[in-house]
Recover the amino acids of this structure.
């Protein structure tokens, strides 16, 4: 809940604001906003000598493109409204980055930390069985993926359970994405959301006139960043921004609290420290400044909330000092905090754009699964040999020798990870520039979030129109 309205209502409010900048008929907007299918499941799991009733959901928000797509989260916050809001965000996210899926989301209302691995496996397999029974999963129906509290391990259990029911179905490996690479996953999926966050921020900061407006200089290099949450998304955003963008990470928070070092925190060493000590507090060179929300208020150029929703509220929004906020988590800013940040001249890169890297690479994984071959396998050596030929010819023609390092770079054939990262980079850059052009073309659109919703709505509406459902 954010203020007086629910998470799902707040997503729909953003949609309605954006709709007023389009000429999409009201009835079509109502259809786009609606959650098409909501499945609520209760099932028992054995805990010790007793049983516990587990509450779970799968929501398919839109069917204008199939399959529907979205993660499954394991968290105590899971309820119908949360899953509906997250499923809706998946619809707009997929449309924005041209991933041809409808939006969906799943959730199980548990704290995974309270269960053994065996119990989590039993819960995951039973949940998958319920989805199979209701025809809520399949490579052409609805394709889950990881989200908060789940990862490749859970996806492997889902695949195995699905295949037990659908033995012999040739495309069954495409029933879930985010699988381990050894179990029909794809290289680069695990870090894709964080990598996409980095590409999105970098692209945004390339535009000097936009950066000047928020009091920053052009370019991500050398900027300061604070990251809330060191889960998959937060840790990869911090690591990649530091390594590939020369960003200085000055603050980090986790559930145990927030740490600060204005001279920069080495994220790789911090992750190793947390692994052996179970906490980020006490990491050499840093000051413990308070609870998990404290880091949000630090002086910095870029703030990356990468934990859960409702972290920046009307209460702490006036104290946020960052100039640019990248919503790596879904819904980290409440509806009543958003205008406060905007009024303070802070630019917000909305969740359904900036964290779309995960579903983008899920799409690549699904394509790989349906094509039953690894990207690059057929053409890698062919291109390598062809490029060697070019380099040899250049050497013959110029009489000069190309250095070994340059030769290695120029003659790369394109392996799976190269192709995945390049497809991801291109997707994030293209989507950002679509949003930016929409923003610039309509001077009355108030912010980037509204501009992004306008882009997404137009694409979804045109799908319905081309299906002949709406005139
Ligand atoms: N859970 C991720 C998201 O919120 C990924 C979804 C997917 O890969 O399908 O975007």
């Amino acid at each position: 809940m954010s203020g007086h309205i629910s998470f799902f209502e707040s997503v729909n409010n953003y949609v309605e604001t954006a709709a007023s900048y389009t000429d999409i008929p009201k009835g079509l907007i109502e259809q786009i906003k609606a959650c098409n299918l909501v499945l609520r499941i209760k099932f028992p799991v054995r805990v010790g000598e007793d049983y516990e009733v587990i509450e779970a959901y799968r929501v398919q928000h839109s069917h204008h493109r199939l399959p529907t797509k979205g993660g499954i989260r394991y968290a105590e916050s899971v309820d119908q409204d949360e899953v509906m809001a997250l499923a809706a965000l998946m619809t707009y996210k997929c449309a924005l980055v041209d991933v041809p899926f409808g939006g969906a989301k799943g959730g199980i209302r548990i704290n995974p930390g309270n269960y053994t691995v065996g119990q989590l496996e039993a819960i995951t397999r039973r949940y998958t069985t319920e989805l199979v029974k209701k025809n809520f999963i399949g490579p052409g129906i609805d394709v889950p993926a990881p989200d908060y509290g789940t990862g490749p391990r859970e996806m492997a259990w889902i695949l195995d359970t699905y295949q037990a029911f659908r033995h012999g179905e040739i495309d069954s490996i495409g029933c879930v994405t985010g699988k381990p690479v050894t179990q029909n996953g794809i290289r680069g999926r695990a870090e894709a959301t964080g990598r996409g966050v980095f590409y999105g921020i970098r692209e945004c900061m390339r535009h000097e006139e936009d950066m000047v407006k928020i009091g920053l200089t052009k370019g991500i290099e050398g900027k300061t960043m604070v990251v809330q949450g060191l889960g998959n998304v937060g840790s990869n955003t911090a690591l990649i921004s530091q390594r590939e963008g020369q960003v200085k990470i000055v603050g980090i928070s986790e559930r145990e609290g927030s740490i600060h070092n204005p001279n920069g925190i080495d994220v790789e060493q911090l992750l190793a420290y947390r692994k052996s000590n179970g906490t980020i507090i006490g990491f050499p060179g840093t000051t413990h400044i308070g609870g998990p929300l404290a880091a949000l208020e630090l002086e910095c150029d870029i703030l990356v909330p990468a934990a859960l929703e409702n972290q920046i509220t009307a209460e702490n929004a006036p104290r946020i000092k960052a100039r640019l906020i990248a919503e790596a988590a879904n819904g980290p800013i409440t509806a009543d905090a958003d205008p406060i940040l905007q009024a303070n001249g802070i630019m917000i890169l909305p969740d359904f754009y900036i964290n779309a890297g995960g579903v983008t690479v899920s799409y690549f994984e699904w394509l790989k699964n349906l094509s039953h071959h690894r990207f690059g396998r057929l053409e890698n050596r062919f291109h390598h040999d062809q490029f060697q030929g070019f380099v040899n010819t250049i050497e013959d023609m110029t009489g000069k020798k190309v250095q070994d390092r340059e030769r290695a770079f120029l003659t790369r054939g394109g392996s799976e990870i190269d192709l995945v990262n390049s497809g991801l980079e291109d997707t994030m850059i293209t989507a950002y520039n679509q949003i930016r052009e929409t923003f610039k073309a309509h001077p009355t659109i108030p912010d980037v979030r509204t501009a992004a919703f306008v882009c997404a709505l137009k694409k979804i509406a045109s799908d319905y129109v081309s299906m002949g459902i709406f005139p």
In short: The chain has 16 helices and twelve strands. The chain has a mean pLDDT of 96.
